[in-house]
């Protein structure tokens, strides 16, 4: 568990680490860069000496059964981003382990958990094989129109809260259908090779949220560093979130 600098959550929990590229939104993956740094620092999870499902330099898909008990020791109420360093719905994560993660979420109803995936097809296919906790939010990444099919998959999932992460936003999402969606996050890419986000793209998804009465969270414009260009869109911050009681 680690406290998070991500504006829309409070901390992270990584019972799985490692991933691989699935779409253009992955091109400048922050988690891959961070994993290399953590491996060099000797961080245990990035040495691939736990339960590696593939082999390689610290960012291969690896499950960490010992991490499953961490939330059982947490106090108070926490908003938790699950697998900030991986994708729980990766094909190399066994269904049995996904169920183990869901079981821990169910056993700690005082916390709110957020799972984000780019692998919406597997999410949809497994949905009927999972017992969905009331305190779990599930989201998909939607970086451009090529990823819009993920929204259709998400709509079929019986989660308490269904959300979109349009970050890095790499193009307009004209005509996006937000039926059945409870929350949208949008933001630009950060890092030395960041791809700039255009104002009209950000306005477009914001306007779509307003028309559909969906909470909208604008995370950042991006730049060489995450905060380089600020967080304001049209003169204000957009920090809207779903009502927490939806997931408690």
Unreliable runs = 49-57
Please work out how many helical segments DSSP would assign.
5
Instruction: Provide the domain count.
Output: 1
Shape: globular
Spatial strand order of the main sheet: 1-2-5-6-7-8-9-10
**What is the N-to-C order of secondary-structure elements (H for helix, E for strand)?**
EEEHEEHEHEHEEHE
Major sheet attributes: 8 strands, mixed
In CATH's first tier, which class applies? Alpha Beta
If you average the pLDDT, what whole number results? 92
Features:
single chain, 248 residues, alpha/beta, two-stranded antiparallel sheet, 21% helix
Structural features, described:
The strands form two sheets. The protein has an eight-stranded mixed beta sheet with strand order 1-2-5-6-7-8-9-10. The chain has a two-stranded antiparallel sheet with strand order 3-4. 40% of the residues are buried. It has helices spanning 30-40, 95-107, 120-126, 149-155, 199-212; strands at residues 2-3, 11-13, 16-17, 62-63, 79-82, 112-117, 136-141, 161-166, 183-187, 216-220. It has a single domain (66-247), classed as pyruvate-formate lyase- activating enzyme (Alpha-Beta Horseshoe). It is an alpha/beta fold. The chain is globular. The chain has five helices and ten strands; from the N terminus they run βββαββαβαβαββαβ. Helix 3 (120-126) packs parallel to helix 4 (149-155).
Short recap of the structure:
With about 250 residues, the protein is α/β, with parallel strands linked by helices. About 20% of the residues lie in helices and about 15% in strands. An 8-stranded mixed β-sheet has the order 1-2-5-6-7-8-9-10.
């Amino acid at each position: 568990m680690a406290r998070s600098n991500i504006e829309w959550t409070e901390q992270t929990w990584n019972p799985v680490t490692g991933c691989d590229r699935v779409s253009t939104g992955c091109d400048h993956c922050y988690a891959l860069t961070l994993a290399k740094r953590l491996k060099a620092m000797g961080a245990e999870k990035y040495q691939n000496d736990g339960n590696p499902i593939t082999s390689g330099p610290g960012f291969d898909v690896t499950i960490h059964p010992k991490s499953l008990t961490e939330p059982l020791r947490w106090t108070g109420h926490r908003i938790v981003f699950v697998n900030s360093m991986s994708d729980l719905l990766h094909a190399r994560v066994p269904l049995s382990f996904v169920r183990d993660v869901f079981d821990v979420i169910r056993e700690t109803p005082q916390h709110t958990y957020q799972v984000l995936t780019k692998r919406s097809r597997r999410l949809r296919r497994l949905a009927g094989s999972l017992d969905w906790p009331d305190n779990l939010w599930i989201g998909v990444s939607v970086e451009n129109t090529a990823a819009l099919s993920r929204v259709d998959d998400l709509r079929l999932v019986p989660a308490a809260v269904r959300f979109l992460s349009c970050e890095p936003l790499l193009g307009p999402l004209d005509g996006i259908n937000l039926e059945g969606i409870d929350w949208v996050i949008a933001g630009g890419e950060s890092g030395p090779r960041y791809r700039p986000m255009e104002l009209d793209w950000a306005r477009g998804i914001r306007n779509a949220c307003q028309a559909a009465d969906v909470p909208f969270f604008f995370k950042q414009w991006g730049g060489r560093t995450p905060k380089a260009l600020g967080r304001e869109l049209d003169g204000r911050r957009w920090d809207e979130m779903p009502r927490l009681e939806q997931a408690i």
